[in-house]
């Protein structure tokens, strides 16, 4: 506007054209200065902002690249590792094999017969069990000569060891061991039954349990109901076969002098049958659970 | 603006570091070669390491021969065994110094021609006075399954959780099977025309024929049974196959009483002698 005004007033402007030009110049430079000043701070600021933006982008890109690179390096080194491990873990393989064999040797105890080599032969360990309960174990130290002999052992004296070894030790060691196993397991089982009767069912016994060391002859007086008024019965159990845990001979008698009533007689016969067919402590468990009503269905 | 400049500088520094990281690691090949070489050096330099390996080998050899010996001694070869242990001790139990542990065992192997696979659980309770170990579960798989006598026995053993009885009876069963096989084979070889084994030496029946007396046949059925207690017993029976005419001629009822006489003979002479006498009676008549 100023410009227009100065130009329209022909001849009457001060300084004429030069002055006019001067004035224009100062105006322009003033304008420019005005424009430039905010631009420098603004410009610098926005330039920085953009630069930061750019730097961030570059940094993120490089980060990703480095990650990839590291992954590649790791992959290639793990590919090489097996080679190294092959060399240094031959020991590991042997160690593992050894642990495996050791474990299997230990596992033999679950077959009932395990053993360890000795300088003379082998020390055999025979385990016994009854109804899943692992019981005592016994050992026999064998001298493996021709013929094999027993060096020493922990077999109880009432087990016919001499008989069994005379029959089988020289000709068939396996048969000798398993036969011994039979006798020992049967003895252990009978002992377990007698022990359980004495400890768990003392309330049913009217007197002490009479037993021999082989636990194949048991004699006791009992009541089928501990608190009841029932008469006591006398039981005598004989296990003629030393390789079994059930008796071969059972006699249940009534102690009183007067004759037994029919129900009592039935009971007596039923009890006899029970003792023949079930382990001793299980018979008393059934007495305890049935109370005074003897379940005839137990009689097979 | 200062914060911006600071950020810019920080970013620049990070970028330089990242650039370096992209370039730094040496080529994989180079690196592992170096590592391998150093391990080898360690290994060779460490003579103790070599000795340990030798000791390990001889120890392993000793253990393996012990295992072989045990396997021959018992007739049972265990091939695989594994065990898992679970501690069931509660805090109350620990206070009373009671320890309760459940072990799960897996065992497999063979006893002559029979292979077995067992899984069982063992519960161990340890208190101040004693340790009780109880098998609380038992499962058995056996092969081959054609020995029908065995399947009933296996379920009984599982029911009773009687692991030892299983192995004991298995051993005796196998022993009897082998004895039966040997006996049949021996007679077959000695009297090839008279003795007839329908299923080969592993069969449970042996037939005795006379080539000169067709129509007559004595069949010995030899079963191996396992009773309730796990006892293995042989059970032999005699079956007679006789033409009708001969039966009519048999005034004394010899044929009828043959099975019973057979049993008596078994008690007197034992298995082998009884069988041989039967074979001979038919055989010698034939050769006359």
TrEMBL record, chain A:
It is found in: Chromosome, Centromere; Nucleus. GO terms for cellular component: Mis6-Sim4 complex; nucleus. Keywords: Centromere, Chromosome, Coiled coil, Nucleus. InterPro entries: CENP-O (IPR018464). Pfam families: CENP-O (PF09496). Residues 52-79 form a coiled coil. Its main location: nucleus. Belongs to the CENP-O/MCM21 family. This is Centromere protein O. It comes from Balaenoptera acutorostrata. The lineage of its organism: Eukaryota, Metazoa, Chordata, Craniata, Vertebrata.
From TrEMBL, chain B:
GO terms for cellular component: chromosome, centromeric region; nucleus. Pfam families: CENP-P (PF13096). One of its GO terms (biological process) is CENP-A containing chromatin assembly. PANTHER family: CENTROMERE PROTEIN P. This is Centromere protein P isoform X2. It comes from Balaenoptera acutorostrata (Common minke whale).
